[in-house]
Design brief:
alpha/beta; binds nicotinamide-adenine-dinucleotide; 12 helices; binds 2'deoxy-thymidine-5'-diphospho-alpha-D-glucose; single chain; Rossmann fold
């Protein structure tokens, strides 16, 4: 079958990637969507069960650091667009194991860029009709004070954790490939995402699961750090719009103007879980346990996404109250998914589906 476009999505078995794959596979039946993922602990093909049989969807198990294999994939599928999400994404893990973050996030991104460069430069149309879209984070901008300021697209990079340093490194390489070789690249920096299919090491799914099982809720420091939360489906919608309409070489910030102090957010989650489980609202607050702060813990993130709204018309579709209610319900209804991803059982699911390829 001839496809109008052949798009490679890396990290499509992860949290945000699975929402992007689902959106593209269902919205664009005339595009072939190739999901390249190494299936680390954070990648789970069960996240994509509802689309895995679609004729325009292909999964390839590969490591972005494997330059030859990535080059083969770009050539084999005649890839003309890349949406790059594959990464190590958890700050706490980066503090324990920075090498893995440098390898995947910096070297992996470089390998993907170089593979695309060689394949595209050798193709008859060169860079015409091609696009390399890199998904990054607001954490590269560092930390804000409690002064009402925002990260804009021109805020100077000031990463503090090994995770954000590795993402900053990858962003620089992407821009360098545009400036040096003329590769049509684009970068977006998004705030904290929440919603279904997030690995339960991150604050929101971890706490929902712990409240359900009456386990302690480890609040770092005094719980005063502020994060800016966006529903993951709204991030996927933004990626769709930017992939199609964003200007080459531009940067767009993505965020919902939705700042929450951790402890206030945690209390909302507790109330919601308690109510949905039929407990008195707030009954689980005794589970809150203040623990040693995260090393180098960034105080506050807040994204100004005015440019994206003004230039491309994107706005979040969900109010936070609605998003959090949907999210809590999803995790409570999907205990089997939580058990599966934390036990590694998806590996046998993968073996069954793909014969251990
Ligand atoms: P995630 O950890 O849930 O998923 C990452 C995916 O990448 C997994 O499927 C994993 O198997 C895959 N992967 C990891 N190493 C790989 C490798 N070497 N080769 C191929 N695949 C590999 O991450 P996420 O939260 O979905 O984040 C996706 C992207 O969005 C990341 O680049 C992250 O930096 C960025 N981001 C995340 C957030 C957030 O709040 N989660 C916010 C802004 C930006
Ligand atoms: O801002 C975007 C970033 O958001 C993404 O780039 C990262 O990939 C993503 O993991 C996320 O990073 P954070 O460090 O902000 O997310 P996390 O869920 O780990 O933590 C959110 C806040 O909650 C942070 O201030 C630390 C705090 N926290 C987290 C955990 C896991 C706790 O207090 N206790 C916890 O157990």
């Amino acid at each position: 079958m001839e496809f109008k476009r052949n798009i490679l999505i890396t990290g499509g078995a992860g949290f945000i990637g699975s929402h992007v794959v689902r959106l593209f596979v269902t919205k664009y039946p005339d595009y072939r969507i190739v999901n390249l993922d190494k299936l680390t602990y954070a990648g789970n093909l069960a996240n994509l069960k509802d689309v895995e049989d679609k004729p325009n969807y292909e999964f390839v198990k590969a490591d972005i650091c494997d330059f030859d294999e990535v080059k083969n994939i770009i050539s084999r599928y005649d890839i003309d667009g890349i949406i790059h999400l594959a990464a190590e994404s958890h700050v706490d893990r980066s503090i324990r194991d920075p090498f893995t973050f440098a390898r995947t996030n910096v070297m992996g991104t470089l390998s993907l860029l170089q593979a695309a460069k060689q394949e595209w430069e050798a193709s008859a149309s060169g860079y015409e009709g091609k696009r390399f879209y890199h998904i990054s984070t607001d954490e590269v901008y560092g930390a804000l004070q409690f002064d009402g300021s925002f990260f804009t697209e021109t805020t100077k990079y000031d990463p503090h954790s090994p995770y954000s340093a590795s993402k900053a490194g990858s962003d620089h390489f992407v821009r360098a490939f545009h400036d040096t070789y003329g590769m049509p690249t684009l970068v977006t920096n998004c705030s904290n995402n929440y919603g279904p299919y997030q690995f339960p090491e991150k604050l929101i799914p971890l706490f929902i699961n712990n409240i359900r099982h009456n386990k302690p809720l480890p609040v770092y420091g005094k719980g005063e750090n502020v994060r800016d939360w966006l529903y993951v489906v709204d991030h996927a919608r933004a990626i769709d719009i930017i992939f199609h309409k964003g200007k080459t070489a531009e940067t767009y910030n993505i965020g919902g103007f939705n700042e929450w102090k951790n402890i206030d957010l945690i209390k909302v989650i507790i109330k919601t879980v308690d109510r949905l489980l039929g407990r008195p609202e707030g009954a689980s607050e005794h589970l809150i346990t203040y623990v040693t702060d995260r090393a180098g813990h960034d105080l506050r993130y807040a994204i100004d996404s005015t440019k994206l709204k003004n230039e491309l018309g994107w706005e979040p579709s969900l109010q936070f109250e609605e998003g959090i209610e949907k999210t809590v319900r999803w995790y409570l209804d999907n205990q089997a998914w939580l058990d599966q991803v934390t036990s590694g059982a998806y590996q046998s699911y993968y073996d069954k589906m793909y014969g251990g390829r």
